[in-house]
Amino acid sequence: MRHPFRIADNVRTGTPLMLIKLSYKGYTGYGEASMPPRYGEDLNTAQLFLEKVDLNTFDCFPDLSPLLSYIDGIAPGNAAIKAALDIALHDLLGKFLKQPVHQLYHLPAASLVTAQTITIEAPEIMAQRVKEATAFRYLKVKLGTSHDRTLIEAIRRETDKPLYIDANQGWKDPEIAIRLIEWLSEQNCVFIEQPLPKNDYEGMYWLKERSPLPLIGDEGIQRFADLETASSYYHGINVKLMKSTGIKEAFEMLMEAKRLGLQTMIGCMSETSCAISAAAQLGSLADYIDLDGNLGVTNDPFTGFICKGDVIPVDETPGIGLKHVDWNRIVPFEAL
């Protein structure tokens, strides 16, 4: 990664990935599992899961539903490696049918305006990161420290751009959180993402009833089943392919969230252009876009939708939208 990625409870300088490819009748589909340690997956768990997968037993392609149901049922959890298989299968299907994935879901192509993420650093470093993000209309700022006001004040000396605030469960006391949110509502902030720990249901319910800004669930919203009670604690949800097991369930979550009147966001982990391009296929369903995970990567082996300023131009390229693959840019995990 170009810079250390520091949030409320951890910091990392890289992210383990598993990149896969599937072949069918002369076509190749690419997929990606991004596995930040906090979600409990790693290269070993991904490899063990893949050893249980046998797609050769299916003859139902191009209908992906039986394949994806089979993959999801192999073992609980393992959302990221399931997402890698889902992405690769969608890429394969789109190329086979000569259609972009968004067309498979009857969605339009869209020019998506993504935010740029500013992670936690000393105030002067965060201010410098803001200066470097001049092309972006929206900034996503990581908070969850004991000096959050100081960080925002440093940013506000540099810009008055709208801010997406992400506390990453870093605020523990709802009463302290509401006072900070009230102050942030006066600082041109758009929403607050995951202010309290994901299992603090009582605190989230209390906070949602009082917050002057929308609260967006991230760590607290993983898969479709979590939407059943989401509106009790959040005004919106952040859908990520690595949490939802891929494109199909992410699409279903976004559609259901809209039906429930929740605001929608498409986010990402630290990812290559493979997973970012896949998520962008669903961008027309999102109120907010946070798909900059590939922009902070130094060894992205894929070329997908090239961000023009802060705009991701989703086009009609078949599959998930990849234009080029360069395996030489991959650093084997054991070499790090």
TrEMBL record:
This is Dipeptide epimerase. Its EC number is 5.1.1.-. Gene3D superfamilies: Enolase-like C-terminal domain, Enolase-like, N-terminal domain. InterPro entries: DgoD-like, Dipeptide_epimerase, Enolase-like_C_sf, Enolase-like_N, Enolase_C-like, Mandelate_racemase_C, Mandelate_racemase_N_dom. It comes from Olivibacter ginsenosidimutans. PANTHER family: D-GALACTONATE DEHYDRATASE-RELATED, ENOLASE SUPERFAMILY MEMBER DDB_G0284701. Belongs to the mandelate racemase/muconate lactonizing enzyme family. Binds 1 Mg(2+) ion per subunit.
